[in-house]
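retry 2 of 3: previous attempt timed out while embedding thiamine diphosphate. Reduced batch size to 1 and resubmitted. Inputs unchanged:
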Amino acid sequence: MEFNVLIGGEAGQGMFSVELELTEILSRLGYHFFATKNYMSRIRGGHNYHMIRVAERPVHALSGKPWDMVVAMDSAETERRHRPALREGGAFIGADRIGQLEAEATKTFQDVTVTSTLLTGLILSFIGADPAAAQAVAPDEPARTALAKGREFAARWGLEGPRSLSPKAGDHCKLDGNQALALGALLGGCQFVAGYPMTPATSILHYFSAVAPEVPVHFEQAEDEIAALNMALGASFAGLRSMAATSGGGFALMTEAVSLAGMTETPVVVIDAQRPGPATGLPTRTEQGDLDFVLHAGHGEFPRVIFAPGSVEEAISLARRAFDVADRWQIPVFVLTDQYLADSVQVMEGRVPTKILRRETPVFGAGYRRYEITDSGVSPLTYPGLSEARVEIDSDEHTEDGKITEDIGLRARMVDKRLRKFEGLRQEAVMPTRFGDRRATTVLVSWGSNRLIVNEAVEALRAEGIAVSSIHFGQVYPLTPPMARGLARKRLICIENNATGQFERLLRRELGLKAAHRILQYNGECFTVAGLVERVRKILG
Amino acid sequence: MEFNVLIGGEAGQGMFSVELELTEILSRLGYHFFATKNYMSRIRGGHNYHMIRVAERPVHALSGKPWDMVVAMDSAETERRHRPALREGGAFIGADRIGQLEAEATKTFQDVTVTSTLLTGLILSFIGADPAAAQAVAPDEPARTALAKGREFAARWGLEGPRSLSPKAGDHCKLDGNQALALGALLGGCQFVAGYPMTPATSILHYFSAVAPEVPVHFEQAEDEIAALNMALGASFAGLRSMAATSGGGFALMTEAVSLAGMTETPVVVIDAQRPGPATGLPTRTEQGDLDFVLHAGHGEFPRVIFAPGSVEEAISLARRAFDVADRWQIPVFVLTDQYLADSVQVMEGRVPTKILRRETPVFGAGYRRYEITDSGVSPLTYPGLSEARVEIDSDEHTEDGKITEDIGLRARMVDKRLRKFEGLRQEAVMPTRFGDRRATTVLVSWGSNRLIVNEAVEALRAEGIAVSSIHFGQVYPLTPPMARGLARKRLICIENNATGQFERLLRRELGLKAAHRILQYNGECFTVAGLVERVRKILG
Amino acid sequence: MNRHDIAWCPGCGDFPIRATLEKVLRELPVAQKDIVLTSGIGQAAKMPHYLPYSYFNGLHGRSLPLAVGIKLARPDLTVIAVSGDGCHYGEGGNHFLHTIRRRLDITILVCDNKVYGLTKGQSSPTTDLGMKNALDPQGNQNTSFSPLAVALVAGAPFVARTFAGDPQHMETVLREAILFKGPSVVDILQPCVSFNKVNTYAWYRERIYRMEEPQKDRYEAIRLAEGWGDRIPTGIFWRDGQFICREGKEMFRRHVTESAVARLLNKPCIMMR
Amino acid sequence: MNRHDIAWCPGCGDFPIRATLEKVLRELPVAQKDIVLTSGIGQAAKMPHYLPYSYFNGLHGRSLPLAVGIKLARPDLTVIAVSGDGCHYGEGGNHFLHTIRRRLDITILVCDNKVYGLTKGQSSPTTDLGMKNALDPQGNQNTSFSPLAVALVAGAPFVARTFAGDPQHMETVLREAILFKGPSVVDILQPCVSFNKVNTYAWYRERIYRMEEPQKDRYEAIRLAEGWGDRIPTGIFWRDGQFICREGKEMFRRHVTESAVARLLNKPCIMMR
Ligand SMILES: Cc1ncc(C[n+]2csc(CCOP(=O)(O)OP(=O)(O)O)c2C)c(N)n1
Ligand SMILES: Cc1ncc(C[n+]2csc(CCOP(=O)(O)OP(=O)(O)O)c2C)c(N)n1
Ligand code: SF4
Ligand code: SF4
Ligand SMILES: [Mg+2]
Ligand SMILES: [Mg+2]
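retry 2 succeeded.
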């Protein structure tokens, strides 16, 4: 039993308010839900839509099934586009009804924006939420009144409680992907963030500027992305775990500084929140098109690690880990996310970890050598101003004490030292996660944000009697042979939100794994469970 | 029979003058020779050395054999470093002798810089060059006098004619790799170059600024590399075949504009003259470390072609072709070179092609659609100002007439259209060149500047009775199955100037070819024939 | 142009700018086909999509190097770069400085709403010190950028300010800027109804006054251009009648010939030391 | 420091700059360990290698964002960014503008030889109009960049010029610049014996005069800063005694606590609309 609603309209017509208010109350009532949105690159007008799925078990994807309800805040576009996907007997709230709600909002509350609360009340009524409980968790008195009025409208229009959903989520919190990354960064000890606004990364920056008054972190808005990553490197050199967050186009401008991080062995984390490219592309939609780019970004050769979380839990844990790995190995670490994960609000059950990772700062004497050649490739790292130890950092090839050198023998030893870190990094690689019946010969392979869509598809296929399992790579680089264990003889179907199958090619190059099939999507939309099931069925059938 | 000389000293002590004067006369005399240099990233001081090889057959690599002569313009460093590699009985021209030459230059010519001409005369005498012929090709009277004086010194020091080399090059010209690329660009119809100085690409820019007064081309020095590539895109949009040239660090700054070229389908050529990275690295040395980076540069997915010439002939022909491919397919095309090829002066026998490639500009009416969807993926290309046809170019995803769109169906069709060009590009891919006995089971694989070093090593190995052949990829992307023909069952040894075997991995990913061995070098120096032979011998046991 | 196709908010200052620009361009003594617009990314940068001219809508911050490339390649074209304050002064700040220095005949139009509009209201370089917004909840800590004063010291020979709420004035200023031979900069005060609740039409109307003519003294022009607060001057601050514009080279359709290449080949080697 | 280890040409103006900077830093009322230098790439950018302080020698053009990151992370450190004219005004021009705007206590030193030295003599932003060199055989076509005037209109509260040939003057100016609380800019006229055959020691000696004190009027300071030719003023053009410097936040070794994270988790969602 579940409920799927789409709320569409022009940018600025209040759909986002409905999503925020509804998900907040759903969360407080203890419902399982999932919410995501498709929006255009404009501030007013156009056509945006928010999709909310409420269920009695954890849901972390769009079902792709016909809508139980479509709400059209605009006059025609939502109806034209989405009413055809309304299930038979589903509820359509169109312009006339919205008009009545707006009239009510204006009349009773002298504030047309209260329409969103009326709609929230109406929808809660539609799913059969307990009115008293809803009243109890409403933020304030006017909201309570408005929710009640919303219920009245539901009753008046015969939309009262046709679905009867129970709240079954336990102790939980609700997070979108970017909040989860920001939280993970905090837990990883991140104290300095620099960035330049860019959808869909901006809300990570917002998080840090919002919490800065309360915790010892700083967000600096840079003049451009080049400055952003260089600032983060400066702050890292000075002693703070640091990061920059951006999207592909901004990341392109950071690639020289990525190489600088590699050469100077300055720990730093970069989040690339992907959107469809090339160039400006579809600035507010989703894609997984930057894997190859991030993997090879920066001139020259140096070690790096790339994570691509597939859930809010993983966003927290991998972002946290990213800072730890960057700091311990003194390398740039990347986190790949995308607009879909960034803008999806999800219920996360269980406790959020609050243990913060950090490292004691060693203090050295005057003979300190920043680039001492060691077996692991990792040199002692400290910060300026703590002792007589001078911290000397150089972007040219350098001696162990950070002076420019053109000694070719030393050059080769320094390359070896830096690349030697790969050995350790491989040993502590994060293994992929498996889901479903491991005996199934077909394995759906995913990375990044598709994980839980794929897993739900695995369940749906199993329900149809089709045996498949899945594997998800939360660490996409380096890939290590143990990750491939048991996969060589499977029929692999690689699922990616891009047009060329970037991860599939990487599997071939790094692990010698050949996928039998690819399911690719590159129109800017995320996969839905139903859509994916359909495509897998087509391949298998 | 050949002659190898090394001329070392501090930056600014005149070694480059000796190289220039000597190679100019050698060329006019019709000698086969090869000259290259190792220099530091400074203007005065330090230790630089120029190496010249003169032979009776075409030579295009350093032999790696002991020197026949070492000339030390400095007091100690050249002697300390290079005298140990002087062959037994070889000539050493040290500080005392240089002092005598300088005294002569000052006394007879009132100009200490004439020392380089004296040395030129001395060396010519050493290789037994015909004095009369040398006099005849000397640039002017003082040079003639100085060459004669140089011969006198050779006689005085017992260095006269111990080697007797004959000039055997036919009709030829002498070029370094960057001149060859610039010339190829001119032949490819390039009329606009933008760049920001960066070793080892700067001399490409110099070429264009030097010829601009004589031919209809323009060089613009940009404020940074971001501006450089965007200027080139502007000029291309306006109707000129255009390029930007830089090295890895500057290229990093161009990656966003590379993606812009991909999205807007604006023809452009980018030359990356590689040097050792990461970051500033060794700014004046050589490496092939940017292949992965250039191959995946720019966010999002779009077609591209990468050439990596392995000789001056190929530098001309592939640079020329790059402009043609970029223009016909409306894509960014890359040429990878490196400091070694850029700074090596070589004899090119045979006629330089002078046929210039160009394309007639079609003129369209008012209904012109810049991004018309076609079977080949190529849309009609024209320029603003020629007719009523408006040329509308957009970095967002766009409609066929260049307007921003967020239509997801159209988005997918546009991605398909752009990527469809790969089909045609694969069909006209430049096949690799083979050298040596094809029946040999061992094949040395190279790309870019190593080609002729490898080929000479193949010859040397065959002379020792070791059967190997070689294959060189002048086009490194896309790689197509016909390129792999006959290679699957060979024992491949991949030879690269980098630390991670980037091309070897690409062969694995793209063609499923696995190299049995890799010979890598990443200390900033080029391979020598002897060095390579030694390493191949070690592998073959 | 169907108003509904335009992706701006109703009431946005970009609408009157567009209308005026359309009129000025239509009436310009230049053939429609010879006008080319470049822009970056942002709300203002969508402008070329709503005007009937060839355009290159490029990357955020990069409208100016595109314009430079076009002008150098095709001196016959009239080149206008139009974008927002974030685009021209923030991401594109280096190009702003150096494009002016190039002395080319390029018109730089800035729809200055003192905010990053398209990304939802963050501080731009021209945002006032202390202004609060989502990314600057404590208030913008940076000195506000004075674009016209910077343009003046960078050597711009034509520097002006106008106001989206004064179409008549805009029309004169834009026309003069485009007709001026040399790099001209016009900062257009543009209310953003969605994110800038301070610098509104009304706010500007209370403060703005028209300067009748350009200043005679460049330093007086700088002083006036920096002025902000109760009295905000609009008009042409500076116009250098003596300015010598760099002329591009005619290259389009004048190809390099084979004999020229042969000539070059016979010259001694061009080699950099 | 062994002179032989220094990669500059004998006679280069960078030598006296280094010597003076070493003296000034040694005598500064700041512990040696608390001084940090940043630089970009170029001849001047090698400076930190020849001084006994912690440094981050980063990318060409990017010394300033490094300095900003350091100063924000560690307000306790004295941060000095030193690089060439190409680095600070060319590749790094955008950071030059915006670092000044950030109101942080960072000293920006520019070894201005009016040429790209390390890459062998191409035009830099400060190269005079018409100067010829290898990449500009017809003569530089760009208006020469007036760095101090730009710094002034960008809001720099401390702006000065000194001369590598006048160590005494350098010493005073550099000391004051470093001690000034706020972004300070010093353009140091630096002869390049290898590539700039015009602006030599002798050329400067004929033209330079010392201003005794900063200007009272900012526009007068701008006018003087722009002046070039027969008479070239050195000294402090402008010093804003009223300037309010932005103070960084103490964060180093003050970690986010677990209880603080728990508190944040209990707050309503921070979500961007
Ligand atoms: C490299 C890059 N960084 C960031 C962005 C995101 N971005 C798009 S528009 C914009 C700001 C626009 O502000 P402005 O130029 O003032 O234009 P407005 O929307 O206010 O008209 C930003 C930061 C981008 N597209 N590209
Ligand atoms: C991104 C990038 N572009 C270009 C270069 C090459 N480069 C190194 S130094 C330099 C110019 C240096 O000029 P300046 O900053 O004035 O320093 P100077 O050598 O004159 O002291 C250039 C262009 C580089 N290292 N990185
Ligand atoms: S956000 Fe502001 S600038 Fe953008 S369209 Fe709306 S009103 Fe105009
Ligand atoms: S090239 Fe010029 S700036 Fe560089 S070290 Fe030599 S003299 Fe100094
Ligand atoms: Mg704006
Ligand atoms: Mg300089």
